[in-house]
């Protein structure tokens, strides 16, 4: 019964977080921001206000495919956010610019996450191979190696949390100080940003639960 509850949680938590961000985004993507600025215009203004004239803005396909590419020094916005002057579009654009500002200021957690990225990628791909092989053949050393790899991937997700929350805080500060949002829009913008942040929290929580589960399995193997 406990295993059923556990796997139900693993399934429900990400679905809940995803539905929350989609609900907030769909609602506020239909609400025009008072500055009447598209996501691209919001991004350009905040970048220029912070002296980041060399950071480019590009349109990309897909919904909520927005991201900042530190290697190319480019803020990439999904078509809807790039062109539409909505509260949601402005919030998402400002958030991604928040990452560009972090990059320009060498924000410590962003640098740490970038350094962890290749290790985390390797750990994510290799961990289950070692874990499953170790459990099938009852080789605790293989399980231990798998746990180390998985821990690297989990650490990456945990470090992502302060990076994302900091970018959202920067987004709010920039949008308020520049007059892009006013009055009730602050509350609406926070709803979009907070919902998006919950997807990272949910992902980190699920990953941490999985790590704990395998650690307990490893401990039981050694007890036996």
From TrEMBL:
The keyword Transmembrane helix applies. Signal peptide: none annotated. InterPro entries: Zn_peptidase_2. Keywords: Membrane, Transmembrane, Transmembrane helix. It holds the Pfam family Zn_peptidase_2. The chain crosses the membrane at residues 128-156, 192-216. It comes from the Bacteria. This is Zinc metallopeptidase. It comes from Alkalicoccobacillus gibsonii.
